[in-house]
TrEMBL record:
Gene behind the chain: tadA
Lineage: Bacteria, Pseudomonadati, Bacteroidota, Chitinophagia, Chitinophagales
Assembly description: Homodimer.
Protein name (Swiss-Prot/TrEMBL): tRNA-specific adenosine deaminase
Catalytic activity: adenosine(34) in tRNA + H2O + H(+) = inosine(34) in tRNA + NH4(+)
Similarity-based family: Belongs to the cytidine and deoxycytidylate deaminase family. ADAT2 subfamily.
EC number(s) per entry: 3.5.4.33
């Protein structure tokens, strides 16, 4: 199993979100080469603006491990985290964040242009399966118009 495999799993979560009428964003948390948590957007379903894929996956990972820190874990997410999710990732001290595509409208870089909002030890990688991720999002919004 490698980064591409785990991002494919995040994309599967995004497709579940889309089937449920949610913005298609998915996430998985991986520790020791095993998925320990999954999440997809559930904002509409839960009527909760904080129910982003990352937040759901993080909460599941914390509960799974019985810990509030994920220093050795990696989050794979299909779209650049927003400022709220980046803040949660900071506090989790997650070891690595891999996201597929940038989100120029709502991503953390829109606000945090000069500095990274993540913990100083967090490694960030961008672009893995980005085209697939953006195609899902574009398809979702094209159907809504």
């Amino acid at each position: 199993m490698n980064d591409e495999y785990f991002m494919q799993q995040a994309l599967r979560e995004a497709k579940i979100a889309m089937e449920e009428g949610e913005v298609p964003i998915g996430a998985v948390v991986v520790l020791n080469n095993q998925i320990i948590a999954r999440g997809h957007n559930q904002v509409e379903k839960l009527n909760d603006c904080t129910a982003h894929a990352e937040m759901i996956a993080l909460t599941s990972a914390f509960n799974n491990l019985g810990s509030k820190y994920l220093m050795e874990a990696t989050l794979y997410v299909t779209l650049e985290p927003c400022v709220m999710c980046a803040g949660a990732l900071y506090w989790s001290k997650i070891g690595r964040v891999v996201y597929a595509a940038s989100d120029e409208k709502n991503g953390y870089k829109r606000v945090a242009k000069e500095t990274s909002p993540f913990h100083p030890k967090t490694k960030v990688e961008i672009g893995l399966l980005g085209e697939e991720s953006l195609a899902l999002v574009k398809s979702f919004f094209a159907k809504r118009r």
